[in-house]
Amino acid sequence: MSSLDHHDVSTLLLGLGIMLGVARLLGEIALKLKQPSVLGEILAGVILGPTVFGSLAPEWSAQLLPATGNVPLSLSALTTLAITLFLLVAGMEVDLSTVWRQGKAAIGIGTMGIVIPFGLALAVIYTAPWLMGATEETDLRLFALFVATALSISALPVIAKTLMDLNLFRTDMGMVIVAAAILNDLVGWIIFAVILAMMGQEGGLPIHWTIALTLGFVVFMLTIGRWLIDKTLPWIQAHGSWPGGVLGFALSLALIFAAFTEWIGVHAIFGSFIFGIALGDSRHLRERTRSTIDQFISFIFAPLFFASIGLQVNFITGFDLSLVLIVLVLATIGKLVGCGLTARWAGFSKRESWAVGIAMNSRGAMEIILGLLGLKAGLIDEKMFVALVIMALVTSMSSGALIQLCLRQRKEKHFTNYLNSKQGYCRLKARSKRDAIRELVETACKETTLQPDQVERLVWSREQIVGTSLEHGVAVPHSRLSGIEQPIVVVGISEHGIDWDSPDGEPTVVVVMLLTPRSDNEIQLDLLADVARTLRNAKRVRRAHQTSSYTEFLACIKSELRETAGH
Q1: Which band of pLDDT confidence, cut at 50, 70 and 90, is reported for residue 495?
Q2: Phi then psi for 282, rounded to 5 degrees?
Q3: Least packed by Cβ within 10 Å: which of 41, 150, 480, 552?
Q4: Eight-class DSSP state of 499
């Protein structure tokens, strides 16, 4: 391709405009239907690609999205950029410290969540390769490793979004699931990087150098590189504009590291993903900045990439029902057995263990990305690619409803039922998170045998795992304690607001601290969900902020809820 002529530019821009518009429209419709936006974005590509538009109007389809020439090459370059940046966002969701803080449960669930499905897939492929679509020409070793990896990786962004939608993300169970998914994804992508290195590329580095440089890159970025980024961010924030300074820094380095991993023989997305982990783990990366980067990429570049997936194959001619069912069953059984049984061993209840297994079975963007790379590399054919995409979409769409079914409670519990006039309300003098938690703990421990210092350490330790701030100026620090039979709830009102690193950048003015019995795994989930429901309205939070006593706060919340119920 020497250069794009006038007609090429017109065709490319028209095709991109239609792809982005249809992808965003169907993505928004999917969200309205309580489904992941990626479902609508892929459907846009299916409609515009050979499956629908190409079959109904092949001549028009060839004019709008030609299969040969300069335009598809340019589109391929743009979608490569899009997925490279999307993996930066996915990496930023990873918090390595969360894995270690959650301890044996998260490590066990994450490890078995990749070992069991990986081993199950290998056993089936080597025992009956024809069931998985392998032929005599198939390189069975690479095919088996690739498919086993694709069936083992969970989709961290999908899992996090599902848990957020169900108000489970900041619970103890939610954090164990997220930590396990982080470990699962990291190991899975390293395995995939090694598979790419084993494939080799013409003119590339020898395989042993590729593997050594890949592992060295991971170790460097997650240790020294992470430290350097953490030291650099404050300088950029102090001297650069917002959000341009951090945004330019993040995107520039993401592309540089992506270029490095592509050069050593591993796909560019791996470099961007590992850099995203190092960047996202910095304590200096503000939640609002993180959200800005996420929105910039997720609303523009990601829809273009996922729409382009539908342009790759014909989903009707590539659909093989038996292969789809085998892939779906293998993937689901592997996750439910590996993660569910390990969660039961770690002390979760039977229903919670099922919920952990179902959550970890959520697939989505990661499997689809792997599938597309495998298709382009010749590791899999169109039928396996279609099966992987359908498996990812089905598990992603069903996880939320199935988790709700597993955790369904007999009776709703409200946090206001556990407030009392003696230790349920205080006006905060604190200007920092730590001081606010200390004040709330001192109030909570009145007329109890609890030791304030010990309780404060537990609540603060839980806060450091992941921040408990919500939107509209609300935070919900919490911990599970031994030695109490009923939950203790304290509401703190801050006159000036406290920097709690909230998602919307607003200062926190209403703090609800929850202390729940360690012996009751479910009450914490109920109360956290109730706080999120009750204080999700900005107007209600403002009214609660204006109260000056326990009685006023309780009256405010109950009157607001009655008005809402009346409407």
Answers
A1: confident
A2: -70, 135
A3: 552
A4: -
What's the mean pLDDT when you consider all of the chain?
A: 83
DSSP 222-264: IIIIHHHHHHHHHHHHHHS-TTHHHHHHHHHHHHHHHHHHHHT
Higher pLDDT residue, 409 or 169? 169
Is 306 or 251 the better-scoring residue by pLDDT? 251
Determine how many CB atoms are found less than 10 A away from the CB of residue 190. Answer: 17
Compute, in degrees rounded to 10, the torsion defined by CA atoms 537, 539, 544, 547.
180
Distances (CA, A) of 164 to 359, 453, 529: 12, 31, 10
CA-CA distance, 360 to 331, in Å (whole number)? 11
Q: What are phi and psi of 327, to 5 degrees?
A: -60, -45
Name the nearest CA neighbour of 340 among 117, 26, 38: 117
Interstrand relation of 469-470 and 474-475 (parallel, antiparallel or unpaired): antiparallel
**Nearest Cα to 403, choosing from 99, 171, 57?**
171
Looking at residue 101, its pLDDT comes to: 67
The 10s digit of each residue's pLDDT in 248-305 is 898 999 999 999 988 887 778 778 888 988 888 887 787 777 778 877 787 888 888 8
Tokens of 49: 């690609």
**HEC profile of 366-432:** HHHHHHHHHHHHCCCCHHHHHHHHHHHHHHHHHHHHHHHHHCCCCCCCCHHHHCCCCCCEEEECCCC
Note the pLDDT of residue 566.
Answer: 44
Q: Which of 314-323, 478-487, 519-528, 548-557 has the lowest mean pLDDT?
A: 519-528
pLDDT confidence tier of residue 365, bands split at 50, 70 and 90: low
Whether pLDDT at 107 is above 60: yes
Task: Give the amino acid at 24.
Answer: R
Check: CB of residue 133 under 8 Å from CB of residue 323.
yes
Report the alpha-carbon distance of residue 50 to residue 59 in Å, rounded.
11
The token pair that represents 264 in the structure block: 């050593």
Question: Residue 329: CB partners within 8 Å, gap ≥ 6?
Answer: none
> Residue 493's beta-bridge partner residues?
427, 510
At 565 the pLDDT is 45
* Residue 218 identity (one-letter amino acid): V
Residue 165 banded pLDDT, cuts 50, 70, 90: low
Rounded CA separation 146/106 (Å): 25
Q: How far is CA 432 from CA 414, 499, 500, in A?
A: 27, 7, 8
CA 68 to chain centre: 36
Cis peptide before 243 (omega within 30 of 0): yes
Query: What distance in Å separates the CA atoms of residue 235 and residue 443, rounded to the nearest whole number?
Result: 39
The pTM of this model reads 0.63
| Beta pairing partners, 469 | 475
Count CB atoms within 10 A of the CB of residue 211. 18
- Look-up of token digits 């919490």: 478
Instruction: State how far the alpha carbon of 316 is from the alpha carbons of 49, 133, 387, in Å.
Output: 11, 17, 11
Q: What is the CA radius of gyration of the chain?
A: 25
